[in-house]
Each structure stands twice: as structure tokens, then as C-alpha cells.
Backbone:
């Protein structure tokens, strides 16, 4: 990298380097896979425990999934942070987007428990926002489609009280919105790392 | 019409590559710049020093996991110089 540049070469070099830097995102697939699997498990457990007394049939699987997911995410994030060599402004934006979603979700859950309402349909609907936006920021179509599917599932869940239908809609949205895009994103991230 | 002179600090392949990477991110480590530019450690180190002395980048040295770590970010002076350079290059190409 020593020779003098023509204007064309300069512009090409600038475009190439900026293009590479813009694709330097943190690896996010782990979180989609982790939360996709945990929350699907929590929904299936809730269905299986539906005839149990209150705590075990309703809240416990979600509490366990939330605490477990939070701890694993924090440990993974701390480890990942030690190996990060670049800080992309879009990483910060994605981080704040998901943080604001988590805060909204916690408020919604508390409000729903107080009102004795099922928070599932509203939270599924809300999940569409950060999923869709993350897909747009990363320019990753499976997450964009995933976000739209969360919206569709959330709307459908509002119009059914059937426990099996709710479970299938939620797990289907998790599979198509988090787990499958998570696997596809992981493959893309592995490919970028190898390149 | 006269051509705008090109900034000699930026009109160098490696220094321009480093600046182009840094304008698109908040900050980047030496190893990231090394990986993306494909330069040698010695050459990259020299060019980072040149950019720092020109006031175009800010360099922070610290320790990460007990290893020395060099982080670079574009200064406001560097960003202005980069924008002027890009405008000048476009001027050359349009004429």
C-alpha cells in the first residue's frame, strides 16, 4: 500500500474501505438463537403446565427463561466485548433499540399482571419492532420478514383465547422470527469472519 | 479552472485506507485496521503516527486483557480534511 493514487483509485479505495467498515457489526446471531430457544421452551412449558396451580402454570417458565437468558446474555456480551476490535455506531443503535424494547416489555408485563391480562399478544406484537428494525439496519431480510411475522402473530393472538392456538402462533413466530433468522445470520457472520 | 490541490497527508494509499475505515466507525483497534488494510504492522504503525501528528486521528493506548491495545478515532480536523479531500477527488473526476 505505498504507490501514489489516481483520483479513480482514491475514490474506489474510499468506497471499498467504508463499505467494509459499515459491515463490521457485532455478532448478534447468538442472542436471537438463545432467546428464540428459551422463549419457545417457556411457551411450550406454559402450555404443558396449563392445568397446574397459578405460579407454575403461568409465570414460572417465563421467569426462569428471563433470568437464565439475562445471565447468559450478560456473560456472552462481556466475553464478546473483550474481543471487539471496532465500534460501529449502528451497534450502539441496535443496543439502545433492544434496551428500550426490554424496558417497554417489563412495564407491559407488570401492567398486564396487575390487570390480570395475558401479556403474550401485546409482547409478540411489540417484538416485531426491534426485530424488523434490526433487520433493516443489518440489511438482513430474514429478520425483516421475522419482524413482520411477529406483527402478524401478535394480531392473530389478540383474536383467539384458545391456549393451543396461542402456543402455536407464538412458537411459530419465534421459530420463523428468531431461530431460523438466527441460524442464517450465524452462517453469514461465520462467512464474513472467514473472508 | 484550476484543480484543487490534494492533501498530501491523505493522498497515500494506506493513510487514505485507514481514514476511510475510521470515518465509518466510532473507533477501531490497531488489529482491526491491520486486518482490513492488509498492511504490515510496521508500515501501519508509521502511517498511524503520521495521521496522528497531522491531527487527523486521536490515538488511545491502553491495556485489554493484559495486552497493549491501540485504539484510533477520527478527529474533527481529520473529518474536515477527509471531506475536503473527497470533494477535491470528485472535482478531478468531473472535469
Residues:
Amino acid at each position: 500500500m505505498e504507490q501514489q493514487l489516481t483520483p479513480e483509485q482514491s475514490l474506489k479505495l474510499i468506497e471499498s474501505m467504508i463499505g467494509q467498515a459499515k459491515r463490521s457489526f457485532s455478532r448478534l446471531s447468538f442472542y436471537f438463537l438463545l432467546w428464540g430457544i428459551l422463549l419457545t421452551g417457556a411457551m411450550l412449558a406454559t402450555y404443558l403446565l396449563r392445568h397446574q396451580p397459578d405460579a407454575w402454570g403461568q409465570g414460572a417458565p417465563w421467569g426462569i427463561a428471563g433470568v437464565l437468558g439475562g445471565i447468559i446474555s450478560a456473560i456472552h456480551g462481556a466475553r464478546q466485548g473483550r474481543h471487539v476490535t471496532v465500534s460501529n455506531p449502528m451497534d450502539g443503535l441496535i443496543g439502545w433499540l433492544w434496551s428500550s424494547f426490554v424496558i417497554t416489555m417489563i412495564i407491559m408485563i407488570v401492567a398486564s399482571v396487575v390487570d390480570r391480562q395475558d401479556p403474550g399478544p401485546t409482547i409478540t406484537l411489540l417484538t416485531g419492532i426491534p426485530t424488523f428494525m434490526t433487520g433493516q439496519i443489518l440489511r438482513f431480510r430474514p429478520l425483516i420478514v421475522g419482524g413482520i411475522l411477529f406483527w402478524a402473530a401478535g394480531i392473530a393472538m389478540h383474536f383467539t383465547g384458545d391456549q393451543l392456538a396461542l402456543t402455536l402462533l407464538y412458537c411459530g413466530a419465534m421459530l420463523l422470527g428468531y431461530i431460523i433468522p438466527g441460524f442464517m445470520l450465524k452462517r453469514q457472520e461465520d462467512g464474513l469472519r472467514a473472508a | 479552472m484550476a484543480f484543487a490541490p490534494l492533501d498530501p497527508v491523505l493522498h497515500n494509499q494506506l493513510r487514505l485506507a485507514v481514514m476511510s475505515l475510521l470515518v465509518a466507525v466510532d473507533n477501531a483497534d490497531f488489529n482491526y485496521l491491520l486486518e482490513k488494510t492488509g498492511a504490515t504492522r510496521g508500515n501501519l504503525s508509521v502511517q498511524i503516527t503520521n495521521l496522528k501528528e497531522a491531527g487527523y486521528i486521536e490515538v488511545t493506548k491502553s491495556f485489554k486483557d493484559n495486552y497493549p491495545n491501540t485504539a484510533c478515532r477520527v478527529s474533527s480536523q481529520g473529518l474536515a480534511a477527509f471531506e475536503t479531500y473527497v470533494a477535491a477527488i470528485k472535482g478531478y473526476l468531473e472535469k
The first helix of chain B runs from residue 13 to 23.
